[in-house]
Amino acid sequence: MKRVASLIILLLLNTPLMAQDVDIQQQAGAPELSFDDLRYRLGYDVYLANKNLAAAWQVANKALSADANNLFWLQRFAQVSEWIGKPVEALAAWRTYAQATNQQAAWDNVGRLAEALYDDETLLLYQKRVVGLNNNNEAAIVKLVATYERLGQPLEGLAFLQQLAKKSQAKRTLLTAEANLAERAGQDEHAINVLSQLIQHFKPIDNNWLLRRAALWFQRGKVQQAWQSLAEIEAQMPARAPEYWHTYAELSRLLNKKAVAERAYQHLTDEFVFDDGDLINYAALQNESEPLNAAFIQELSYRLYQRDNAVINLLYLYQKANYPQGIHRFLALLSAEELARFEQNALFLEQRGQFYWQQKQLVAAQADYERALSLDPKRSTALQGLVGVLIEQGNRQLLQDILLAANSTAQRSPALWQSWALAWLYLQQQSRALPFQHAYYRDHPQDALAALTLAELMANVGQHDEAYALRQHIFNQRLLFEQQETGERLTQLQNNLFALSLPQQAPEQSQYQLQQRLKNTQDISAFEQDVSLSWLLNQEQFDQARHWLAQRPSSAPIPTWASLNLALQNQDNDTINHLLNQQLEQLPIYDRIEAAMRVNRPDLAEDLAFNTQDAYANDDELHRRYSDLLSVRGHQLQLETAQIELGALEQQQQLLLWATPLNRLWRMSAQIKQQQNDSNDATRLSHSLPDSQQLELAWQRQSTQQEWQLALTQQDSWSSVTGWRIKHQYRFDSKIAASWQWLHQQTATESTGLLLAGMKNRWAAGLNWTPTGREYVNAELSLDDYLSQDGHNLGSGQIIQIDAGHRVFAAQSDHVLKVTLGIGKFSPQANISPAFNVLLGQGQNLNSGFFIPQDYQQLGIAWAFGQVNDKQYQRGLRLMGELGVNSSNVGGTGVNARVGVQGSVFGNDRLSLQLIHSQSGQQNGETNQQLVFGYRLFY
After folding, report:
1. Which of 577, 521, 579, 568 is nearest to 545 (CA)?
2. Which residue has the higher pLDDT, 201 or 362?
3. Which residues form the domain of 410?
4. What is the Cα–Cα distance from 253 to 231, expressed in whole angstroms?
5. How many whole angstroms separate alpha carbon 693 and alpha carbon 672?
6. Which of 210, 433, 536, 802 is such that its CA lies 20 to 30 A from the CA of 546?
7. What is the largest CA-CA distance in the chain?
8. Do residues 535 and 577 both lie within one domain?
């Protein structure tokens, strides 16, 4: 009967007969008859009854093709698709069927297949329904959130959870999931708001909510808010809540709420639920207020966690608490192995050395410091301790060796500045102490004693303006500074302030104050001795100063600064030489150089200036003095080339110069200069201009008070000319110097004609006055006879030149305001040889004005910057220049401008490049432009 029924169904569906030996599932095809629900249902049931699932699937599929929304066939298609291994089609059908019927069984099939097929989009629909029906189902909510996150839709998940929370009045499980998702999605504010709802509405409060909210506030920089949230519930928290107390302690520590942090850490230690970090932070909080308790905590940390750094800290803290028995006990309990390990630690040796130093065990302290430095040679605190121990031992030689060997380290280590300054002062080497004291005071501007020490050092090395300003600052704030000191430091400060007050008063008043001080002092101390001597020298009462020194007790040594001051005033070369030979390091650095030059010992002066360069790398005054000595006394080789345009005259100029010292006073130089001349205006100058070559051999003698120069010259241009010059300068004192010069047949630059074919004989005298270190006045009178190079008289002239300048800043020399006055009177010779017509342009008539300039009166003002002697060596690259205007009765208003750069390239050399432009009443008002390139080697 089964076979007959199958044949009937096949006929109904017009499906071809199949041989019995053929797999019916392989041969099943889509029904060919048009859709008829009754016949399709009958066929489907028959195929299903015969377990011909493939044919049944084809029938269901054909039925859905004809009627896609037929729920009967949707269900049948979903079932048979799953049976024949088509889960994807089954899931799609179950999803459509479930959405249409909302049957739980259908949704269960959707959830099951979607999870198996990893179809998160469909699974999300199922899970949203499940959570919507039971929004307190924690497992379902967790799966829902995970699905949103896998789909990369955390914000959509948050929106869904928010909607459910509103409908269900914020159930705990739902809000917890929302807070978790918001936190993982980086929605910190959202997470904070949800956690706040949980904390507000649900009891008991989960501590995890509090800590997570505090952590989120902390991450967003709201540290105070995070701390406040924990502080509000402090009273409610049990003692054994380690995560809370740890977080509360950390936030309190960050907000400098020391008492609260200590209370929280104490809870952790009382309950013994701390970690190593808690002990470290707790000890750090108590380092200042309770160093002994902090030491106990550090010792506990070492015993529990074997942290070596805790040992270093406890040694320091026991010393700070003045509890040496704690260190004795701890060291005694260390095993031999522990002690051997610690003695390989420079920090341990340093702290133990400090302990030995406090206990006056100086030999043991020195040994520990030296061993620490052998392990860590650049350890500044160990160096500081060793220097202090050596000073206390009085070991001067070893102390000096240490200071020199570690000088570069000390310069880079602020902790060593005061130690190095005091150590050099102990060795009476003030020049070496100065930079360290200066650096220390910059870091401690409220230390009045440090400031006064610095001012004294500055004055001793010549920095008088800076010393005066610093002393005035301390004196004006003396009441404030006195309130900050006590005991011996207060007495020392008051003595220094008394000495500082004396120069502030009129001489009679300061003398009265000093006499009253001496009268009221039973035993005159070293302070009263020195302040009295200083006052006498400052008032230039040298005879009284000598008398005071004669009455000085033999046990009180005479200060070297006083001895040198009196010797320089007396021109006592024997005493100066004695001080230079026996007490050199105790003399101010600038005074040393001056003293050496005063006794005609330039070699020593040069050595003194050179040997202090490293220690005073930024001392421009010292460098200037060294540059002067090097430039004047060293070997030099110079190359220079210039492009010059003076009116219609163009010049190409090359110069080679060599100079060398002959002995400590004499110096010789030789130079050759070549000039190629041409005209840039044929109507003014001929193109047939003679070139020029000049040879010069010069000797110079320089001593303390005077300088001589003798030079022989040879020039070949229009004619061959041999000449000479003599110059002499005599310095009466530090403010006034006079000079004169006598020139015979030398180059004349007063006009274009003189440059090409002329020369001059000159006699001149000058005076230089420097009333202060910032002003100068130069005046010179010159009487000139002008000749052609073949000996014809061209005329004469008298020139008066007065220059005055003011250095704008006392502390530096490279900004100067200048005023110049020049007056020239000239008498030309009427008869000029017609041979000079070849120098003139076409159509020009030769007259005396070609050689002799017009009379002029000129006044100028200028600002100069970067001004240094361009013949001297200098460090670094320097921009230099001068800008000025002038007015004359010849050319009206003119300008003068110079800009250039010069500096060292390889070391002891100088490269310079200058551009010059000027127009003035001199040189008949011609425009002068120059481009000059030079290189000088000092060797």
Report:
1. 568
2. 362
3. 343-427
4. 13
5. 7
6. 433
7. 161
8. no
Chain mean position to CA 334: 45
Q: 514: which 2 tokens? A: 């000093």
Instruction: Quote the pLDDT of residue 518.
Output: 73
Which CA distances in Å does 339 have to 308, 330, 344, 557?
Answer: 11, 11, 9, 49
- CA distance linking residue 46 with residue 1, whole number of Å: 13
C-alpha to C-alpha distance for 619 and 596, rounded to whole angstroms:
19
Pairing of strands 877-888, 692-702: unpaired
Domain CATH code at residue 359? 1.25.40.10
Q: Are residues 436 and 421 in the same domain?
A: no
> Which residues neighbour 581 within 8 Å (Cβ) at sequence distance 6 or greater?
none
Q: Do 409 and 378 contact (CB within 8 A), yes or no?
A: yes
- Same domain (yes/no): 383, 491: no
Q: Which helix (H) or strand (E) holds 156?
A: helix 154-167
439, 469, 504 — which closes off a domain? 504
Using DSSP, state whether 275 is helix, strand or coil.
coil
The amino acid occupying position 208 is N
pLDDT at 95: 80
What is the distance between the alpha carbons of residues 77 and 99, in angstroms, rounded to a whole number? Answer: 15
- What is the tally of structural domains in the chain? 5
Is residue 47 situated within a structural domain?
A: no
Position 865 scores a pLDDT of 86
Residues 853 and 922 in one domain: yes
Tell me the average pLDDT across 700-726: 92
Regarding pTM above 0.90, the answer is: no
Is 679 in contact with 689 (CB distance < 8 Å)?
A: yes
Cα–Cα distance for residue pair 258/264, rounded to 1 Å = 10
Q: What is the DSSP letter of 34?
A: P
* CA-based nearest residue to 632, from 655, 677, 592, 662: 662
Cβ neighbours, 10 Å, residue 617: 12
Q: Which of 861, 878, 862, 860 is nearest to 870 (CA)?
A: 878
Tell me which DSSP letter residue 813 carries: S
Beta bridge partners of 722: 714
Say if residues 461 and 430 touch (Cβ distance below 8 Å): yes
